Amino acid sequence: NPDDIEKHWYDLWDYGYRYGDQGIYMMGLSGIDIALWDLLGKTNKTSVMQMLGGAVHNSLPCYASLPPLRNTNLVINETKRAIESGINAVKLHEVEIKYVSILRKEFGESLKIMVDVNGHYNLIEALEFGKELTKYNITWFEEPVRPMRDHDAIKAIGIKTKIPIAAGENEYSINDFKKLLDNNTVTYLQPEITKIGGITAAKRITGLTELYNVALCPHNFSIGPSLYASIQWAFASPMSRWIEIPWVPKNFNFDFYNSLPEIHNGKINVPNGHGLGLK
Fold this sequence. Notes:
alpha/beta; globular; 10 helices; TIM Barrel; about 280 residues
């Protein structure tokens, strides 16, 4: 019975807690939970967003999340393509400062740039890289250090560089997020709905973002249900600020862009449809 989603969530949690609150079990629980919310919405002819309380935003800005390209021409061309589509914000997954410098020089201050290094650096290296980033007015510095869940190191980077920090994609439980936010360093919280326990757990994290007064920016570099679940959640959460759109070069050999939501002037409007909005 999809009506009893909370019960199903806790039954699964109770069954699997001995395996820990991180990793593959939580990802499996997340998938089941998202599917149940989608089914309940379709059964009742309403959206997940409405079941979460309805939209608190008329629209939300999105950014083009580029894959690691490691090529100057590709980075410039994909950024141009994003701008031509109306998106004026990009996230780089690059670990050399030259790419940030090139984009700022090529497109000026109007382009919003996020930098995600996927925990590429140790603490000393991250501090040095962060110092370089301060020259380029970036929107945030994401996953700056390895281990990526080293909360003390994240705090040190935020304090010493004074760059807004984005983190959270590798946290799983609400207790993990509380520990991260207790550092009072993260500006943009990035839970991944396919890791945290799905939409049921997302409701609780929404409350944390309000309690700690941090921006919610769901992390997602996938198409399909995870992207659309993230959008439904974001529109129902008052602290939401950005939606991540995977941005892959068109010569990649799979049908990617037909799976993206409609984007108007760099924004996504309130989602339509039942459940997640996917047919």
